[in-house]
Amino acid sequence: MTPSLSDISTSPKRYSAVAITLHWLLALVILAMFVLGVYMQDLPFSPWRLKLYNWHKWAGISFLLLSVLRLAWRVRQRPPALPAAITRAMPSWQNLLHHATHHLLYALFFLVPVLGWAYSSAAGFPIVWFGQLALPDFVPVDKALAELIKPLHEWSAIALMGLAALHVAAALKHQWIDRDGLLLRMLPGRS
């Protein structure tokens, strides 16, 4: 049984404005950092490439701080449960995938920027956040360690994008195929 749009749209079980804002802000930062990371990776060494790497590192630290804020908010302000009609209609494997995807996303929210910070430190390129705040090196300078960390950072970023794409696909499935209105809970500007 597919739940109707009225099962959701009349329910007050929406995310808070803070959760919605953090969700969409992190989504934009993830996309921007990934696109920037892919673009700058094969650029020849130049002042432009160095500037892009700094922007990427600044965005990564900002993303890490936003992730801490988002997790703290989520712990303090529990998200609304899935509506009962959707829970009843969802096969158990989808429910398991729903929870696993969210847990892995949160893990990668922290793992990707921490690996990036560790890589930058091991490579001997300190992070000066927005050119103002010198952050401590996460690990000592060690070129061999940097070469081990770099692919871990890249692959975890790809995994994050893959899970984000799966998350978007599931939301669009609920919106356009199931037509259950689940996406409305996370859209800004709706009461």
Looking across the biggest beta sheet, what order are the strands in? 1-2
> How many individual helices?
6
Under CATH at level 1, the class stands as Mainly Alpha
**Runs with pLDDT <50, length 5+?**
1-12
Give the biggest beta sheet: 2 strands, antiparallel
Count of extended strands: 2
Order of helices and strands: HHHHHEEH
Q: Sum up the overall morphology in one term.
A: elongated
- Integer tally of domains: 1
Topology:
Layout (H helix, E strand, L loop, with lengths): L4 H5 L7 H25 L5 H30 L7 H6 L2 H31 L5 E2 L3 E2 L8 H36 L13
Helix pairs in contact: 2-3, 2-6, 3-5, 5-6
Describe the structure.
- A two-stranded antiparallel ribbon has the order 1-2.
- The chain is built from 6 helices and 2 strands, in the order αααααββα.
- It has one domain: Fumarate Reductase Cytochrome B subunit (Up-down Bundle), CATH 1.20.950.20.
- It is elongated.
- Helix 2 runs antiparallel to helix 3, helix 3 crosses helix 5 and helix 5 runs antiparallel to helix 6.
- By secondary structure, it is mostly helical.
Name some characteristics of this structure:
191 residues; mainly alpha; Fumarate Reductase Cytochrome B subunit; 6 helices; 2 strands
Brief summary of the model shown:
This protein is mainly α and 191 residues long.
